[in-house]
Each structure stands twice: as structure tokens, then as C-alpha cells.
Design brief:
The complex is a heterodimer of chains A (197) and B (333).
Chain A (H helix, E strand, L loop, with lengths): L26 E2 L6 E6 L9 H5 L20 E2 L6 E2 L5 E3 L2 E3 L1 H9 L9 E3 L1 H10 L8 H15 L12 H31 L1
Antiparallel strand pairs in A: 1-2, 3-4, 5-6
Helix pairs in contact in A: 3-4, 3-5, 4-5
Chain B lengths: L7 E7 L4 E6 L3 E8 L2 E8 L5 E6 L5 H21 L2 H20 L3 E7 L2 E4 L6 H19 L4 H10 L17 H22 L5 H25 L6 H34 L7 H6 L1 H31 L20
Antiparallel strand pairs in B: 1-2, 2-3, 3-4, 5-6, 6-7
Helix pairs in contact in B: 1-2, 5-6, 5-9, 6-7, 7-9
Classes of the chains: A alpha+beta (197), B alpha+beta (333).
């Protein structure tokens, strides 16, 4: 029988999925009869036993952990070379990292795999160039703002997903057209006023 | 800069303004929630994923399909009756809107479990795409964690302890008797409203029965809401009951407002304000009665159909007949 913490439930009614239905295609919920497929993997049964690895006390002449001098070193950090115990070793991007290196790289913005969110600067610039155009007048302010945003954020990291710079190009294009339109209008009005005099 | 691998998109996404999508790298699954100006990420490393559950939600769109069909029927009826295209156009637009929502409604749900929690994957909403996405994820998880055979699974489960009763959610089976009565009563009330609408004279007994049926409908709808709470009743049926409860006060307010309007109009013409015959013959009152009839009829029909579908899918097969012959097992072997 499964452990209580290993119970899987039906998404529709919340009833527990019997373990006989685990890893079986097209089973039915015993309560709501909704068809479901519950896939379980070996990780469900693996037990994390970090304490055992970190509990080893360093003996005479053995290398110790940089962060825990009384713990035996297990691996070196692949970035800085510091010795790490099993508690401090972080398996990241297929390498052994120490917490210090991860934090340092994260602060420099060099680890896209640790970002929990990203602003979409290109969408902001494009929205600023296009949406106010519905009301026409606000573009006198928003078009230069859009150009400024595009110039400022051109090189900033955008989405972690594959993304082109086409929105930036469009934002710049629309903003330039709008600014040109305002310049033309201003020139036309000045010309009109001077010819009337 | 640490070079990052490119993400591959999984064939599942949802939402219009707030979009959900799933992406994959060689070692993890990325859940993305994007609004027009930012993206939020959640990573699930394949080595940490313990389980993945995909549940089909049949019948969630049924309400919309029936509503669209009824709207189309009204479209035809109104076009024939009024011979004016505006009513038909309005009804057609409504039907298209309902059809669109019916198409957008999810027909499956998926969540994954890790050692720290259980998270729903909102991008997975449609079964066909869900099956493709799940197959791709399963392949990657198997590459990292290795396969889990049935024998290994049984052995692991046999070595564990029993399920704690507290872990099972408190959900009850409900046969839907109260709902059958409610929807039947709604149809009965609709029939009475139709009779009053077609009659040109005021009938006190008919009005009393209609009022009693209306009050009983309200009472049963309230009881049905309590009964369906934390039960296995289908979502469509639950929504019909909720719609009934929402429309009931609106209908009452409309009835009251129209009666007041007619009373004031009659009084201004020097007639007796409580003249029931004059009220019944008034076109505004007839429209309110027609609306009353329509929503009772539509919701009653939809409710009965959905309840019938729900009972058909949750029907428990009869128990197997155990043969007297001890050599033949219950499964026929």
C-alpha cells in the first residue's frame, strides 16, 4: 500500500487514485468515474538522505568542507574549486556548484536558469508605440518614450524563451513614424501661420 | 554568461491575456505564466518529478453546446415568428459567443507532484495536445530517472505503510434525486407559465399553483446547492443550479418592476391599479411571463439532460454473478 504522502488524487473530484491504477492507461476514478492516467516515477520512492552524507566528521589529514570545517569534503566546486560537503554540494547544470558561486552568478544575472520572472521590454516599447495611437494625441509623449525604452533596453536580457527582436524593430518603426507625423504637422501649422500673415 | 540551452515548446497552451505554456530543456520542464509585459517561470527538474496525473473532464462543455443549440433553435423560431432579422441576428451572435466559450472550455486537467508539493499545469487544457505533451515529458523523465516497471512498483508499494484515512478527501457520492425533482419542477412551472401566457383571463387557482411551484423551485435550488457541495455531482449540473439561484431574484425584481409600472400606468389612466385582467393583458407583463417561461424551460431542459448524462457516466455496473462451480473464478478464468 502507498504511503499517505504518496497518495495521488483525481483532479476532478479529489478522490484518491487506487495504487492499482498507477501507471495504467485509461483507468477510471472510483468516485466520479472520470477517465484518468496516473504516471508515477522512481523519484516517488527515493528517500533524500542528506544528513548521512553531511554527518561525517573530518578525521586527521582529511579535506574538510569550506563552509563546514568539521564536515568531510565530498566534491570540489566546478566554478571556484572550493571543497564541499554533501550538504553544500548543489548539482546544477550538470556540474557541482557551491552556494556562493550560485549566488554570485545569480546576482550578476548570468544564470538564466534561476530567474523566476522576466520583464518583456520589447512588448512594453511596442505597446507604448501602438496603443496610445488609438487616441492620437498621447503619441506626442509616448512615441519618444517608446524610442527611449527601445534604446535603453535593447541589450537587456528578455524572455528566457526563444524570442526575436522583431517587437523592438516594430516599436522603433511605429515611434519614428509617429514622431515624423508630429514634426510634419508642426511644420505644416507653422507654414500655414506664416503664409496667412 | 553561462550558456543556456534553448527551450522546446510543448504542444499545450491556454489563455488570452494571461497565457500559460509549457517548455522543456534536457533536464527540466518550464511552466510559463505570461502577461503582456512580463513572464513568470516555474521549473520542474525531471529528476524531481514524482508523478503526473492527467484527468479527462468529459461533459464540461456540454452546457455550452446545449445552450448554443437552444439559441440556434430560438434563432429559427424568432425569424419565422417575427420576420425581422434583428432578433435572429442577436440570437445568432449569442449562439456564436456560447459556441466560442464551449470550444475554449477545458476538457482535461493535469498536475504534477514533486517531493515539495503538487502543482497544476494550467497550460494543459485540451486532451489531444495534452496527450502529446505528456508523452514528450514521460520520455524525458524516463531518460533521467529510468523506467519503473509494474513489478518494481508493486514491490515498492508492498513495502510501504497503509494509507492514512485522513489523506483521503471527504467527498461523497450523491445520486441526484433532489436535482431530478428540481428540474422536473422547473419544467412544470414553465408549463404553468405557458398556460397563463396563452390564457386571456385570470385564473386564481392556476396562479396559486404557479406561485407555489415557483417557491418550491427556490427552496429546492437552495437545498440542491447544499447537497451538491463536496459531492461527485458534475460541474454542468452544479452550474445549472447556481444559474437558477442567480436568475431567480433577477426574475423577481423584473416581475415586481413591471407590475409597478403597469399599476402606475393604469392609475394614471384612471383605472383601478389592482385590475388583474388588465395587468395580464398588458404587453409588458406578457414579455416578463415569456422570459420567465423561457429561462425555466431552458434551465430545466439543460439540467435534466446533464443530469441524465452524469448518471449515465457514473452508473455502477451490476455486481458479477459468482458461479456455483468452485473451479470458475469471479473473473471468468
Amino acid at each position: 500500500m502507498p504511503l499517505a504522502s504518496e497518495t495521488l488524487v483525481c483532479s476532478k473530484c479529489g478522490a484518491a487514485i487506487p495504487f492499482e491504477d498507477w501507471n495504467r492507461e485509461h483507468a477510471f476514478c472510483t468516485v466520479c468515474r472520470a477517465p484518468h492516467s496516473a504516471y508515477v516515477f522512481p523519484a516517488l520512492f527515493s528517500k533524500i538522505d542528506r544528513a548521512a552524507g553531511a554527518a561525517a566528521i573530518v578525521a586527521e589529514g582529511e579535506a574538510s568542507c569550506y563552509y563546514h570545517p568539521r564536515k568531510r569534503a565530498a566534491v570540489p566546486c566546478d566554478q571556484c574549486g572550493r571543497f564541499l560537503c554533501a550538504l553544500c554540494q548543489v548539482d546544477f547544470l550538470g556540474q557541482n556548484w557551491c552556494p556562493g558561486c550560485i549566488e554570485a552568478h545569480r546576482q550578476k544575472g548570468q544564470l538564466s536558469n534561476l530567474d523566476a520572472s522576466r520583464p518583456l521590454h520589447d512588448n512594453m516599447a511596442l505597446a507604448l508605440a501602438t496603443l496610445p495611437a488609438v487616441l492620437i494625441w498621447p503619441t506626442i509623449v509616448t512615441a519618444p518614450m517608446s524610442l527611449y525604452l527601445a534604446a535603453r533596453d535593447w541589450r537587456k536580457p528578455s524572455s528566457v524563451l526563444p524570442r526575436t527582436k522583431v517587437r523592438f524593430y516594430l516599436a522603433v518603426l511605429f515611434a519614428v513614424v509617429e514622431i515624423a507625423g508630429w514634426i510634419w504637422l508642426a511644420a505644416f501649422l507653422i507654414h500655414l501661420l506664416t503664409t496667412r500673415r | 554568461m553561462i550558456p543556456a540551452q534553448k527551450y522546446r515548446r510543448l504542444p499545450s497552451r491556454s489563455g488570452l491575456l494571461i497565457r500559460h505554456s509549457l517548455w522543456m530543456q534536457s533536464d527540466h520542464l518550464l511552466r510559463v505564466r505570461a502577461n503582456p509585459f512580463s513572464e513568470q517561470y516555474r521549473r520542474y527538474y525531471f529528476a524531481d518529478i514524482q508523478a503526473l496525473v492527467l484527468t479527462e473532464l468529459p461533459g464540461t462543455a456540454a452546457f455550452y453546446w446545449y445552450a448554443a443549440a437552444i439559441s440556434f433553435a430560438f434563432l429559427g423560431g424568432l425569424l419565422v415568428y417575427s420576420r425581422h432579422p434583428v432578433w435572429g441576428t442577436l440570437c445568432g451572435l449569442l449562439a456564436l459567443l456560447v459556441f466560442y466559450f464551449g470550444w475554449r472550455v477545458p476538457n482535461c486537467s493535469c498536475y504534477l507532484k514533486t517531493s515539495v508539493g503538487t502543482d497544476k499545469l494550467p497550460a494543459i487544457r485540451h486532451l489531444r495536445a495534452a496527450r502529446k505533451a505528456v508523452a514528450m515529458v514521460l520520455l524525458e523523465i524516463e531518460k533521467i530517472q529510468g523506467p519503473l516497471s509494474r513489478e518494481t512498483l508493486d514491490a515498492q508499494l508492498a513495502s510501504g505503510t497503509a494509507v492514512s484515512p485522513a489523506a483521503l478527501p471527504a467527498i461523497s457520492h450523491y445520486g441526484g434525486q433532489l436535482h431530478w425533482t428540481l428540474f422536473a419542477l422547473m419544467l412544470f412551472h414553465a408549463a404553468l407559465s405557458a398556460a397563463i401566457w396563452f390564457m386571456d383571463f385570470y385564473s386564481t387557482p392556476l396562479s396559486v399553483v404557479s406561485g407555489a411551484a415557483s417557491a418550491a423551485t427556490l427552496l429546492l435550488a437552495i437545498l440542491a446547492v447544499f447537497k451538491q457541495h463536496r459531492s461527485d455531482m458534475s460541474r454542468g449540473v452544479c452550474w445549472v443550479v447556481i444559474c437558477t439561484l442567480v436568475l431567480y431574484p433577477l426574475n423577481g425584481i423584473a416581475n415586481f418592476a413591471v407590475s409597478m409600472y403597469i399599476g402606475i400606468q393604469l392609475a394614471s389612466k384612471g383605472q383601478k391599479a389592482g385590475n388583474t385582467q388588465a395587468i395580464i393583458n398588458h404587453p409588458a407583463f406578457k414579455i416578463v411571463r415569456l422570459a420567465d417561461l423561457t429561462w425555466f424551460l431552458v434551465l430545466g431542459c439543460i439540467g435534466l439532460i446533464l443530469l441524465w448524462l452524469h448518471q449515465r457516466t457514473t452508473h455502477t455496473p451490476p455486481p458479477l454473478v459468482i458461479s456455483e462451480n468452485p473451479d470458475i473464478q469471479a473473473d471468468g478464468t
